[in-house]
Amino acid sequence: MEQSHSQHSDLAIGPHGRLGLLRLRYSTFLRIAGYVACLLGMAMAGSVYSFNAYSDAMKAQLDLSQSQVEWLLSIGVISTCVGFTAGPFIDRFGVHASSCAATLIGSVGILVLGLAVERRISHSFGVMCILFIFPGQGSVFLYMIALMSTAVNFPLRVRGTLFGILDSMYGGSAGAWSAIYGFAYGTSNDVLLENVAGFMYLMAIVSSVVGLIMFVLVHHLPWQESTAGKAAENRSQRHLESLENSDQPSPHVNGHGVSQDAVNWHKEHDDENEALAESQSLIPKEAQSGEEDDEEENRTIKQLVCDVDFHLLFWPFAIVSSVTTMFIANIAFYLKSAHLEDRYRNLLTILIPAIGLVARLIWGFSSDHLRKRVPRVYFVLFGTVLLTAGLVTLRIDVGQAWVLILNSFTVPAAAGCVWSLVPAMVSEMGGVRNFGLNWGLIMFCSGLCSLVFQMLFGKVYDANTRSKPITLAPSTHEVISVLDSASPTAATCYGPDCYTVTSDVILACCVVSTVMLILLVIRQRLKRRQS
Predict the structure, then answer these.
(1) Of residues 482 and 246, which shows the higher confidence score?
(2) By C-alpha distance, which of 83, 107, 361 is closest to 215?
(3) Percent share of the chain, pLDDT over 90
(4) What is the mean pLDDT of residues 378-402?
(5) Of residues 384 and 85, more confidently modeled
(6) Beta bridge pairs of residue 188
(7) Has this prediction a pTM greater than 0.85?
(8) Can you tell me the distance from the alpha carbon of 149 to that of 81, in angstroms, rounded to the nearest whole number?
(9) Residue 240: pLDDT above 70?
(10) Checking CA distances to 372, which of 217, 349, 357, 451 falls within 20 to 30 Å?
(11) Residue 42 in contact with residue 144, Cβ under 8 Å?
């Protein structure tokens, strides 16, 4: 009986159906394997944000001022946000060539940067500014390959979760790299003796290995290509079930005990299924999408710029992402100004990425699970309000440990919210076809906004750096006063004045972002009621 049922199933599906099923399973395997490789790529791409772990040591070893440190950080951030170069490159040359480019640019750039830190090549400030571009560009190539492959290979209904997981690796990897640096390369009590160059050599090796893995495993397999085979399989399965559930025995049964109706139906529909698959392959992808394309409209960045809703989403994203980047990158200086560095630096440099990782997972899964009932913009609004509330406490008393710890939760949570949900929202607004260029340009504008906040932080910090006494001869109590900027080890600002102006500006910007998101919520609700 079981043998008869198996033969019955094979006949109902047919050789073309079995081939389609095998192709579907193989493409599913390639999608999953590619997504795992993308996770590794994101873990490597996020390593550029471990800068705060060794920024103080680099500042001392290269005789940099705080403003120069902020410039290097800003250049690194902006280079990671120049995604409009990576997006069209991936579209034009494919993921394999892009993986090679990411490996070459990232690993070689980090290697040369390590040589500069070790003073084996020129380490002037101008040279360092140029060298910091390359790790960021390698990072953005890995980032865009992962996002674009996920957007192309998987349906819209799960993109929030998948983007959230990717972004959790991107943000959380900074904590892992910071921990590696802290426990293996930054163990000296003297920042001048920390092995920053050795840490960069390690990152260069890992970047090469990850690029090779992505070259082998990542493919672009548009989701719509599998719908024809799945449709044929579903039609065969439904007919098989209808025959099995029939109360009337078939008057025509062959020698194997299989209904002749199943054989006849299979013969009639084999050609139809094959023709369906062939016709689907000739139809443009945007016309095959069915339910998924009903939710996506392919629009260029010019069309998006003309949409008011886009601006109500873009500017809050640019502000929130820039503010969170500024805080996370400078947490070591916040702690040092409050004389809390020895107690909390290692803890917070690991805690912040860990909170970001968990937050990204929660935001992505929740937004997908509740997408039909709660639009994603509500989650973005909640994350922005959370950030604003934390910044209020930062403005009131930046020198308290509990304030910095509180913001070490709210800031990465808000960053995880916008970085995991806004890409999915942009893919909904602009579609998959132009996603690489659209999201790349959005990232670039966000990077410019981040540059403004970083420069503000550095200028305010340096302007409030005060002179302090240094004892030269304890026996005679001879003391001289030098400006902090004259010595790299003394260029530290202490007290709340180091951040007052910066805190006022970023708090005001976050309030404006909250208002803009509230307007976006209202507009979307009105549109839903009208429709």
Answers:
(1) 246
(2) 107
(3) 20
(4) 91
(5) 384
(6) none
(7) no
(8) 18
(9) no
(10) 357
(11) no
Integer Cα distance of 186 and 181 in angstroms: 6
Count the alpha carbons within 13 Å of 119 in the hemisphere toward its beta carbon. Answer: 5
Tokens coding 270: 């084999």
Question: What number of helices (H) and strands (E) belong to the chain?
Answer: 20, 2
User: How do 468-473 and 478-482 pair as beta strands?
Assistant: antiparallel
Question: Which residues on adjacent β-strands are paired with residue 481?
Answer: 469
Cβ neighbours around 256 below 10 Å, total: 11
pLDDT class of 208 with cuts at 50, 70, 90: very high
What would the 3-class secondary structure string for 482-498 be? ECHHHCCCCCCCCCHHH
d(CA 419, CA 165): 11
Burial 27-40 (b: 16+ CB within 10 A, else e): beebbeebbebbbb
**Smallest Cα–Cα separation from 58: which of 326, 467, 332?**
332
Q: What is the pLDDT of residue 294?
A: 42
pLDDT at 529: 85
Of 145, 42, 138, 139, give the one whose Cα is nearest residue 87.
145
Report the distance separating Cα 462 and Cα 473, nearest Å. Answer: 28
Distance of CA 68 to the CA centre of its chain: 27
Q: What is the mean pLDDT of the chain?
A: 77
Q: Which letter, b or e, does each residue of 334-346 get, where b requires 16 or more Cβ atoms within 10 Å of its Cβ? A: bbbbbebbeebbb
What confidence category does residue 347 fall into, taking pLDDT thresholds of 50, 70 and 90?
A: confident
* DSSP conformation letters of 402-456: HHHHHHHHHHHHHHHHHHHHHHHHHHHHH-STTHHHHHHHHHHHHHHHHHHHHHH
Looking at residues 327-353, what average pLDDT do you find?
81
Is residue 50 within 8 A of residue 181, CB to CB? The reply is: yes
Flag whether pLDDT at 113 surpasses 60: yes
CA distance to 89, 199, 299, 474, per residue, from 62 (Å): 35, 16, 47, 29
Tell me which residue has tokens 């073309």.
16
The token pair at 253 is: 């049964």
Beta bridge partners of 259: 253
Question: Are the C-beta atoms of 199 and 185 separated by less than 8 Å?
Answer: yes
Per-residue H/E/C for 64-80: CCHHHHHHHHHHHHHHH
